[in-house]
Prior knowledge:
Blueprint: H1 3-16, H2 23-34, H3 39-60, H4 62-70, H5 79-113, H6 117-134, H7 148-160, H8 168-178, H9 183-207, H10 216-236, H11 238-243, H12 246-265
Helix pairs in contact: 1-2, 1-3, 1-10, 2-3, 2-6, 3-9, 3-10, 4-5, 5-7, 5-9, 6-12, 7-8, 8-9
Amino acid sequence: MDLAQAALLGILQGIAEWLPISSSGQAMLAMVNLLGVDALSALDVAFFLHLGSLLAVLVYFRRDIKDMLLSATSRSAGSRERGTLIFLIYSTLATGVVGVPLYFMARESFATLGEGVNLIIGFALLATALLLHFSPATGTKGVESAMRRDMLIAGIAQAIAVVPGISRSGITVAALLMLRFRSEEALRLSFLMAIPAIAGVNLLSALAGGFETLSLEVLTAGFASSFVASLVGIRFLLGAARKLRFEYFCAFFGALAVLAGVLAVV
């Protein structure tokens, strides 16, 4: 993979991250089918590109994050800030307990799948399309009234998104909407939940030696382009994510991926 390819993948990640279409699934499909990258390396790169989006989240939500962290030590902090902090603690614990075993299962599977990766991602995208289609429009609940059950369910939903093709934002927002959260609150919590999740999965990838085959220049190009695209995308695409029917996008690319996988194994 050269610098230009890494930069283009970073742009794809930065745009797709804020839409419920599985940025990791789209990036892996591009790497496996267009660049000839093996499935396991593509999995590691897809996760690494999320670090640019992580930095964009930290910049965009810096005030929310500051208020949330201060709420841990301030008695005068509002219930919204303290509620958000508690929500992230419990949801992150649930993501870790369920997601870490799933992560290592995914690594083991993608190491031997070969062309079959298209089938896995394709069916996961089709599942995401169904989830988006049947999600309720909005609810009435805010983070102040969130129950511990809500936090754990949201965390488990996020853990499932370690499988490329399952949209992290799509499945967490859908889970929160089904728990009757307001749509804007579901989006805010989903993006804040991404901070520890992205950091954690990249730590696991680094410990597993997932980045050793890529040069520092390639990683830097992918990270920088992902950050810039994410920072632009988070401002302009969040509105589109609430209005457009992205289940059709997931269904289309999922069907293409399944077809490619079937043709490869026939």
